[in-house]
Specification:
two-stranded antiparallel ribbon, 9 strands, binds S-adenosylmethionine, alpha/beta, Rossmann fold, seven-stranded mixed sheet
């Protein structure tokens, strides 16, 4: 009862470590998850301030932490759904089970100004397909104030969450949310189309850890080989791209299948901080 937050962190890590939990929804291991849990309960933010970790928690905070820990362990629900918080490009997003938990390696690309792959200064109009929580579109709007962004999703429920985040980040004038099945309801041409579409083959999805079962299936599953949406995007993108435009598309576990099926000159983006399976292709190669 008299432990400092710092000691509690170590205890939480140890308790999590004993359980068969899956990490990968915003945290990568028991240590990361313990930190996220403790920061949430004590209402602290990243980057961690070590002085604050030496504070003593109140009894109410102790109870909240115990409650959160048991829910995580017994239900296996990913932590961001329990705390309604997820971090992407260092921004805090509201999330719940209407949206996929943000974790795309595209975050690193945005933080690096899309370099050396795209000259962002030459990009004016961006379309994000399948925005979910809005994490990609909104992080781009924050990082690149000159961009005009359209973000779509087929899910009305996901768009409700994207709207909450758009309002919280005061980006209603810069990011336009549209309900659309890929390119339907859209007009105009874009310099950049970016998408992290569903790409998990049905059979792979059925064998994923329990944590994934809390996420919307329509954010993950993409038919028998994972290509249902990627194929449609590759095929339908050309009229929506300017001549010197580019498409950046995450294919994740379906990357090998994409390479096998399409004889296209994809550039596979390399990431320093983990993640793979994000391809870039120029408009002129999609025609
Ligand atoms: C993998 S999630 C990505 C969410 C978010 N962009 C991110 O990176 O965290 C895919 C998103 O695509 C949406 N989606 C699925 N089918 C779609 C379609 N036919 N048209 C537009 N969006 C679709 C899902 O609702 C989901 O929000």
């Amino acid at each position: 009862m008299h432990s400092k937050i710092f000691d509690i962190l170590a205890e939480v890590e140890e308790l999590l470590d004993r359980e068969h939990l899956f990490y990968g929804h915003g945290t990568n291991c028991a240590r990361d998850e313990a930190l996220a849990m403790v920061l949430s309960v004590f209402d602290l933010n990243y980057p961690v301030d070590n002085d604050l970790l030496s504070l003593l928690p109140s009894s109410e905070q102790w109870l909240d932490l115990n409650e959160l820990l048991s829910q995580r362990i017994f239900t296996k629900m990913p932590l961001p759904y329990l705390t309604n918080k997820a971090y992407f490009c260092e921004h805090k997003f509201f999330v719940d089970d209407r949206v996929l938990i943000p974790r795309s390696p595209i975050a690193e690309l945005i933080k690096n100004n899309l370099e050396p792959w795209v000259n962002i200064k030459r990009v004016k109009k961006v379309l994000e397909i399948g925005t979910g929580s809005g994490c990609i579109a909104l992080s781009m709007a924050m990082k690149f104030p000159h961009l005009e962004i359209v973000a779509t999703d087929i899910s009305k429920r996901a768009l409700e969450v994207a709207k909450i985040n758009t309002k919280a980040m005061k980006l209603e004038n810069r990011v336009k949310l549209i309900k659309a099945d890929l390119f339907t309801n859209l007009s105009g041409c874009f310099d950049l189309i970016i998408s992290n579409p569903p790409y998990v083959a049905r059979e792979i999805f059925e064998n994923l850890p329990t944590e994934y079962s809390f996420e919307p299936q329509k954010a993950l599953v993409a038919g028998e080989n994972g290509l249902d949406f990627i194929s449609r995007i590759l095929q339908d993108a050309p009229p929506f791209l300017n001549d010197d435009g580019v498409l950046i598309i995450e294919a994740g576990v379906a990357s090998t299948e994409v390479e096998r099926v399409y004889n296209l000159p994809f550039t596979w983006i390399s990431f320093e901080h983990g993640g793979e399976g994000v391809a870039l292709i120029e408009a002129k190669h999609l025609e």
